[in-house]
Structures are given as structure tokens and as C-alpha cells.
């Protein structure tokens, strides 16, 4: 559980809640086809359906600051650096404003390009 304490009390978030906010924020960005998860049987990456977006997100919390790793599939013909910057800005904004948590770093891993 990742928490936030202020003058009104304490709020705790499960990692799944944070990962869902991050996953939905990522999917709102132009050029993102979906999130990717590693298939443990074959070691291949597969596209995740909307219900399981949190599997394409890895959250690390240290001193109430988040480090977020994202695994995404992008659309062919789009500029990857622009997509990654848009994802970083959108995720940071949504996590800090909706959840009130501080984001230390966001790493966007492009796992595939879809035609």
C-alpha cells in the first residue's frame, strides 16, 4: 500500500489502483495501440486488453515517491519520441493531480510497433 498523509488524515492506495490510473492515462495518448505484458511461457510480449492494463505497468514506491515503468505498443508511422513525451506528461499530471502522489520518474519501454 502506498500512502499519503495530510492534515485531514491518511489515504492509502493499492498498487493496482495506481497502475489502472497509469494504464488508462497511457491509453488516452495519441499513437498508443495498447499496453504490453510478457508472456511467461514463451518470453514473448503480448498486447493486453483494456480490462488488464495494470499488467503493462510496474510501480515502485520509495519514500512516498513513485517510479513508474510502462510497457507499450505504438502505432506504425508515428514519432516514438513524441508519443513517449506525451505519455510521460499525461501520466505525471494524472497521478499527481488525481491521486496526490509525487512521481519521481517514468520510463516508457516501447515493446512493439503495430501496423
From TrEMBL:
Pfam families referenced in this protein's UniProt entry, alphabetically:
Asp23
Write down what this protein is called.
Uncharacterized conserved protein YloU, alkaline shock protein (Asp23) family
Protein family membership? Belongs to the asp23 family.
Q: Which domain of life is it from?
A: Bacteria
The record ties this protein, via PANTHER family, to: ASP23_GLS24 FAMILY ENVELOPE STRESS RESPONSE PROTEIN, HYPOTHETICAL CYTOSOLIC PROTEIN-RELATED
| InterPro entries hit by this protein | Asp23
Amino acid at each position: 500500500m502506498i500512502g499519503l498523509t495530510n492534515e485531514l488524515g491518511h489515504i492509502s492506495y493499492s498498487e493496482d489502483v495506481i497502475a489502472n490510473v497509469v494504464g488508462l492515462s497511457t491509453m488516452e495518448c495519441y499513437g498508443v495501440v495498447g499496453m504490453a505484458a510478457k508472456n511467461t511461457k514463451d518470453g514473448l510480449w503480448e498486447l493486453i486488453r483494456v480490462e488488464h492494463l495494470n499488467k503493462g505497468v510496474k510501480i515502485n514506491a520509495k519514500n512516498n515517491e513513485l517510479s513508474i515503468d510502462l510497457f507499450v505498443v505504438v502505432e506504425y508511422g508515428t514519432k516514438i519520441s513524441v508519443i513517449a513525451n506525451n505519455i510521460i506528461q499525461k501520466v505525471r499530471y494524472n497521478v499527481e493531480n488525481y491521486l496526490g502522489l509525487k512521481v519521481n520518474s517514468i520510463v516508457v519501454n516501447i515493446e512493439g510497433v503495430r501496423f
